[in-house]
């Protein structure tokens, strides 16, 4: 919070502070760059588990910048940060469990009549 | 830690207007965030569960289906295997049947990220109580949000009407496009998941645009100016960034992977 807050005490009444937007455009640059890198991988690499892992890691980077900077979570109290992050982290378990289950169901169905 | 969580003395608690400042003594800002912002965070957390359920379902169903194992250039649409996304989403408005794999979705992603940037700029202007700047950046955000919605409408329309080349089904019929029970791209559930996931996201964008229009009207009327703060813009900003965040995940899991 403090790092982005305008310096109000130096202002005369009714005066409007100068915009402090450098950090916003910096984060924008990072998000565009990561998206561009994703497209490089789409066209230069054949689909594989490695490529998918790269996409997921890059997505998590993008998510980090949106949540931490744009949604300001990085500058909130520790209690709020953990309140949001812990339930979301549990979703990874759900994702892994159900994808494994999906592969298993697919295998059973494909081998059913063999 | 001990100091911040200490309870108030009985004497202080007895006077009703004494501020409650500890984390656990009923103070009105438990995480040093206002009630409204905190509730917006909890709503977004629950919304994240809904979207995570959708995307997890997508992952499970996709893994249930066969994978096309040949070379990407030999790929043909078939109900046997899951389609390769850059073969499905390769059209661009005004370019006819030109093959632009993922080109349009890249543009949509840029538009939504830009709208997120103009939203932070509006929040930043609100911190400075700069009514003119808030109005300007809200208008840009509304513009980008609406452009995204129109792009999605085009994307849906193209998906529903199909490519120029039909897919020949096992019984010899030619199939164009997609609906909820049949589609030319792959297994039935592929189109169903497309409609549900991008549709649910689009509904969120639409609600966001409505909220932003309301915010613009309230800003113009000076509602926030009179209130002394632009926190409403911050709360709606949180929602708007969340919608962008969800798109980042939909983009990866639906279009890239």
TrEMBL record, chain A:
What keywords is this UniProt entry annotated with?
Cell membrane, Membrane, Transmembrane, Transmembrane helix
For the keyword Repeat, the answer is no
Query: What residue intervals traverse the membrane?
Result: 23-45, 54-73, 79-99
Q: Write down the membrane topology.
A: Multi-pass membrane protein
Localization (cell) = Cell membrane
Main localization is: membrane
Q: What is this protein called?
A: Cytochrome C oxidase subunit IV family protein
Q: Which organism is it from?
A: Hymenobacter mellowenesis
TrEMBL record, chain B:
| Keyword flag NADP | no
List the protein's name: Cytochrome c oxidase subunit 3
**InterPro entries per the UniProt record, alphabetical:** Cyt_c/ubiquinol_Oxase_su3, Cyt_c_oxidase-like_su3, Cyt_c_oxidase_su3-like_sf, Cyt_c_oxidase_su3_a-hlx
Where are the residues of the annotated region Disordered? 1-25
Among PANTHER family, the record links this protein to: CYTOCHROME BO(3) UBIQUINOL OXIDASE SUBUNIT 3, CYTOCHROME C OXIDASE SUBUNIT III
Give the keywords, sorted. Cell membrane, Membrane, Transmembrane, Transmembrane helix
Q: Does the keyword Transmembrane helix apply?
A: yes
Pfam (any one): COX3
**The species this protein was found in:** Hymenobacter mellowenesis
């Amino acid at each position: 919070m403090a790092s982005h807050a305008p310096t109000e005490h130096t202002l005369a009444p009714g005066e409007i502070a100068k915009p402090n937007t450098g950090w916003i455009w910096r984060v924008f640059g990072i998000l565009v760059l990561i998206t561009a890198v994703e497209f490089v991988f789409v066209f230069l690499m054949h689909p594989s588990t490695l490529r998918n892992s790269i996409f997921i890691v890059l997505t998590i980077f993008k998510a980090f910048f949106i949540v931490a900077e744009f949604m300001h979570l990085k500058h909130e109290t520790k209690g709020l940060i953990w309140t949001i992050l812990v339930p979301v982290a549990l979703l990874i378990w759900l994702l892994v469990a159900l994808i494994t289950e999906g592969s298993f169901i697919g295998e059973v169905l494909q081998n059913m009549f063999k | 830690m001990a100091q911040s969580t200490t309870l108030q003395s009985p004497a202080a608690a007895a006077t009703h207007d004494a501020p409650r400042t500890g984390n656990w003594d009923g103070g009105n800002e438990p995480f040093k965030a206002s009630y409204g912002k905190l509730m917006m965070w909890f709503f977004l957390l629950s919304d994240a569960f809904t979207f995570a359920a959708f995307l997890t379902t997508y992952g499970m169903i996709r893994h249930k289906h066969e994978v096309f194992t040949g070379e990407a250039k030999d790929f043909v649409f078939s109900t046997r295997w899951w389609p390769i996304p850059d073969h499905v989403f390769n059209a661009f408005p005004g370019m006819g049947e030109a093959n632009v794999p993922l080109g349009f979705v890249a543009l949509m992603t840029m538009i939504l990220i830009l709208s997120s940037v103009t939203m932070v700029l509006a929040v930043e202007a609100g911190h400075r109580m700069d009514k003119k700047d808030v109005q300007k950046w809200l208008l840009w955000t509304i513009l980008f949000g609406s452009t995204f919605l129109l792009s999605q409408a085009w994307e849906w329309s193209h998906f529903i009407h199909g490519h120029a080349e039909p897919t020949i089904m096992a019984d010899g019929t030619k199939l164009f496009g997609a609906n909820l029970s049949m589609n030319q791209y792959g297994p039935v559930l592929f189109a169903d998941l497309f409609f549900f996931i991008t549709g649910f996201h689009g509904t969120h964008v639409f609600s966001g645009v409505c909220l932003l229009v309301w915010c613009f009207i309230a800003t113009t009327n000076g509602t926030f100016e009179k209130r002394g703060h632009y926190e409403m813009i911050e709360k709606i900003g949180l929602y708007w960034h969340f919608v962008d965040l969800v798109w980042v995940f939909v983009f990866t899991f639906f279009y890239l992977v």
